[in-house]
Design brief:
Elements: E1 2-7, H1 18-30, E2 35-40, E3 47-48, E4 51-55, H2 65-79, E5 86-90, H3 97-100, E6 108-113, H4 117-123, H5 129-144, E7 148-151, H6 154-163, E8 171-173, H7 188-195, E9 202-207, H8 216-225, E10 231-236, H9 244-256, E11 260-263, H10 268-277, E12 280-283, H11 292-299, E13 303-307, H12 312-315, E14 322-324, H13 328-340, H14 342-356, H15 361-374
Parallel strand pairs: 1-2, 1-5, 2-4, 5-6, 6-7, 7-8, 9-10, 9-12, 10-11, 12-13, 13-14
Antiparallel strand pairs: 3-4
Helix pairs in contact: 1-15, 7-10, 8-9, 11-14
């Protein structure tokens, strides 16, 4: 089959996102027996792993509908001379909505739904009501006029099909995956030595966008109130474009707290040492469609304390993690419990590794291809 993926992000040395990670892993596994093209705004050149890359512009990007409109028009021009069987668009910024509504298209259009736009608008504090309305309409257009909709969790499928019940017959759930050969437990103290982290402190790790939807403000409150002599805080993620109050608070904490290590981004190899260094991985998100962070942490044998929201309970169960409400007091209570009962975190981490074995990128790619062929 000739398959095109449309994704704003694709992993590079400087940026790795959840959606980009999914596109990379699925496209690489489909490439040996299919003709794959990835359309991306990331700076990826030429042909890699048997995949052809075509860049589209990032103009107007910063959560503006102009970005989606510009990208959609540019993609329509690129598609004219390509005889694709399938074109899949990742749902993040509606880049492909114009393709879905094109009555002249000869390919099947697949919309893969990650975080619904409503959740992005509310949790990321997007205040422009006109922009919010336009993005909602773009997402609706892409879903309704697609030939198939793939959801990354049952939670997201239920949310969207409750809004658009007429789409239920073309909806499927395909979970994200993990490469267990890469993400496997490593020695905690060896990793801490590499990263120059203290060996005698309880390390709490946060990975993700440093904004309200990811619950970074909750993590900052933990930094502010936990004993600096006993805890160290490891953070991987870029500062929020929208939550200026959270960014300002974080910058103040960086000035006055010596127990914080922050990486804007991390390569896959560095990320594994980061996970290995942690005693507990904290995921205080107010919404997650799936949570690759939870899955990666489980695969690395780390104890996860996560919010009981969205698709997280489909990745983490009560035996392989601790699930709680997305608020400061709930996370603080569980952190103290794990700090005072050192062996518990290790036992939970070992169970998490077993849970992670249920997921794989090979399975994600196989199920995706099956859906394509049946459209």
């Amino acid at each position: 089959m000739k398959i095109g993926f449309i994704s704003k992000d694709y992993p590079t040395d400087n940026v790795i996102t959840g959606i980009g990670n999914m596109v990379k892993n699925v496209s690489e596994r489909l490439a040996p027996n299919n003709n794959i093209t990835v359309f991306t705004a990331s700076e990826v050149d030429g042909n890699k792993m048997g995949i052809n890359f075509i860049n589209f512009p990032r103009a107007f990007y910063n959560f503006s509908p102009l970005y989606a409109l510009n990208s959609s028009m540019h993609l329509s021009r690129l598609m004219k001379n390509n005889d694709f069987d399938i074109v899949e668009c990742e749902s993040w910024k509606s880049e492909g909505f114009g393709l879905a509504g094109n009555n002249d298209r000869k390919f099947k259009y697949v919309h893969r739904q990650h975080t619904p736009i409503d959740k992005i608008i509310v949790q990321d504090s997007v205040k422009d009501k006109i922009d919010a309305h336009v993005f909602r309409k773009m997402e609706e257009e892409s879903i309704k006029k697609s030939d198939g909709v793939i959801f990354v969790s049952e939670a997201v499928k239920n949310y969207v099909t409750n809004k658009f019940p007429q789409t239920i017959d073309k909806c499927f759930v395909v979970y994200n995956g993990i490469d267990l050969r890469k993400f496997s437990p490593k020695d905690k103290y060896e990793s801490r030595k590499k990263l120059k982290l203290p060996s005698n402190k309880f390390v709490l790790l946060f990975v993700g966008h440093l904004g309200r939807r990811k619950g970074f403000d909750i993590f900052l409150d933990l930094i502010k109130n936990l004993d600096e002599k006993k805890f160290h805080f490891l953070i991987v993620g870029r500062k929020s474009l929208y939550d200026n109050d959270i960014t300002s608070f974080f910058e103040k904490l960086l000035k006055f707290h010596s127990n914080i290590t922050h990486y804007n981004c991390a390569s896959e190899n560095l990320l594994m040492d980061i996970y290995s260094s942690a005693d507990v991985v904290i995921v205080p998100s107010r919404y997650e469609s799936f949570s690759l962070v939870c899955l990666e942490a489980e695969a690395m044998g780390r104890c996860v304390v996560a919010s009981n929201v969205g698709g997280i309970p489909e990745v983490c169960n009560k035996k392989s993690s601790i699930l709680c409400s997305p608020d400061y007091s709930s996370f603080l209570k569980n952190i103290f419990y794990l700090f005072e009962n050192g062996s518990v975190a290790k036992k939970i981490g070992n169970k998490g590794r077993k849970t992670a074995k249920k997921f794989s990128w090979n399975k994600t790619a196989k199920e995706t291809l099956k859906i394509y062929k049946n459209l």
